Structures
1.
Amino acid sequence: MKVKRQINRLITLRMALFTSFIELKFIPYLLKTGYCLTMKTLFSDDPINGLQEEILLEIADDREIAQSRLEKITLENLYNSIEDPSLPHSYAGCSAQLAIGFAELHGLRYAQEDRIAFGTLPEFEKLTHQQRLLILEQTIQHLNHVANDNGMETVGSTLCAAILCENHIYTANVGDSTAYLAVLDQKGQMSQFKRLNETLHHPTEPAELLRLQKAGKEQFIRYDRLMNLALSRAVGDTALETYGLIHTPDLSHHEVHLPPNGKAWVIIACDGLTETPGDSDTLDIATLIQENQEKNAQEIAKILTHHAFASGSTDNISALVTSIDPSLKMAKYVAVFDGHGGAECAELLRTLFHPFLKNTLQQEIKA
């Protein structure tokens, strides 16, 4: 008990030093799993953690997009004040070092329940393809344990993440957020466009419906929902486990063959970007990217989110866009978390995704 009190004091001190990067309510899980013994590796020496990198954000109101202002702020500080009703509803920014751009809109929702994360993963290139997928899976397992330990019974989130390493992409998906790959040839024509996560976790999707039928849970599907939730997999929402909801991610590995002098992007987005009225959402994304291929990642992300809003999306709308550069040796990641029932679960994920992913990577390298 004395040792645990000393560890608690050490963690509290680190919390003060690192500006509450992890909220105190998450400490019991960190103690239980042993993460407290490696707090230094969780917090320090990060080349880039997107939440803490100071970014020049373009901030506006959804309904007054033309009247925007620039403000130098960290994404973490912006999110910390996100529930302030006076905060403008639209913002976009980029990490120039990583060629990652993002844009988020409240849309017609009062609160912004989406969260995003991005950063770098030094030494990721040392792992095999199997190990790379394994650390994604283990990171999500840890995040699920945190959600369970914090009583997130009726609040949850999707999780869609992609790690880019040279010309390889590794994705993990829980829920109905999406990852896309767009490849243009040297003439600027779209040579490949596809969704990287093949299955969206809705209870009526064929693969998910079959899983629920095998588990004897089909009777809990009502009006295309699993009880009251449009998802059949999520982080959090533990009260729905008895009805067939699971937290297991779908994992995938894709090798990108970039044409000579071609361009390629990965787009990560919540369902607010893709579930607009009509059936041409995927086509619209491909067309918009091709038409705006000379713009940077931030501008493309803004164009995509504003197009979804103008097309009738009533949800929060978030998108991250990053280019694929096979010559870039250090791996980078992008992730989106679409919260529901409140922003608590998505906030937990954006706070802990980077340190848990980094810690799991380091443990795998040492193994």
2.
Amino acid sequence: MKYLFVLFFFLSALLISAQNNSVQSSLQSLQKKGIQEMNDTLDTIKKLEEEVTKNPKNPILWNNLGYFYEKIGKLNKAVESYQAALSLDKKYLTSLYALGNIYLKQGNTGEAKVYYQKTLEVNPKHWESLYGIAMAYQIEKSYLAAADYFEKVIKINPAQIDTYYFTAFCYEQLRLYQKAVRKYKEFVVMAFKMKKIKLYLLFLEQAKKKVDELEKKMKEEKI
């Protein structure tokens, strides 16, 4: 029996060691992949910088340069590049939308909305910009405006599931509980319909909890 225990612990140690080696190997592989991707991105940036020097009147090159600057976190350079693209083509949708996203990330909701709105002037059905404006209003706690824009997103792209949840949240903040409950329920239905249960599991649990709380509150307040 003693030898069996020794053998058991020996095999367990080997298994743990093998698992640790496997994890370490995976981490090293991911690290190498990340380094390679960064090197590839830097090479691309260098080539694009050379290209825009040769062809400074090409908005596509400036936009692409902005994208790769943004990818490595050089947001100021990204903004400069996107602005350069827009100086050549003021309706360049990709650059307009990218600037909206950068300003939103930086918390500059006012500028973000300006560029999202300019994107919508080029393409009124650009639901991503409507979504961006909605998020900006939500950050500002302008929940009525946010809900309005989220509803516009749903009309154009009903498959954008998280929009239902955010719309419900806005209605809840406005004490429009019936609308909030309806949107939370629609969120649950869409998550199951689109087979996104695992992706939105925490949100689904929260939505169910919110529905129960709000329905109870409506009964108490006789809404």
